[in-house]
Amino acid sequence: MNKSIFEYHEYNCPLSPHLFIYKPQLTSIFSISYRIFGAFLATIVFFFYLLCLKKMFDLLYL
């Protein structure tokens, strides 16, 4: 009765429901896309900030 997870996996029993059995919902697609776009936008803003800092130090210490 004390079988490990690996022994259950040998019988091709899924340990949890697979992601592809769920129909993607519009709200979840928007949520994921907003997170990806937000991370991309934050990266652009961060590099622009670093570029501005570099330009500022170049102007101050010429």
UniProtKB/TrEMBL annotation:
The chain crosses the membrane at residues 32-52. The keyword DNA repair does not apply. SUPFAM superfamilies: Fumarate reductase respiratory complex transmembrane subunits. One of its GO terms (biological process) is mitochondrial electron transport, succinate to ubiquinone. The keyword Transmembrane applies. Its main location: mitochondrion. One of its GO terms (cellular component) is respiratory chain complex II (succinate dehydrogenase). Keywords: Heme, Iron, Membrane, Metal-binding, Transmembrane, Transmembrane helix. It is a single-pass membrane protein. One of its GO terms (molecular function) is metal ion binding. Pfam families: Sdh_cyt. It is found in: Mitochondrion inner membrane. Component of complex II composed of eight subunits in plants: four classical SDH subunits SDH1, SDH2, SDH3 and SDH4 (a flavoprotein (FP), an iron-sulfur protein (IP), and a cytochrome b composed of a large and a small subunit.), as well as four subunits unknown in mitochondria from bacteria and heterotrophic eukaryotes. This is Succinate dehydrogenase subunit 3-1, mitochondrial. It comes from Capsicum annuum (Capsicum pepper). The lineage of its organism: Eukaryota, Viridiplantae, Streptophyta, Embryophyta, Tracheophyta.
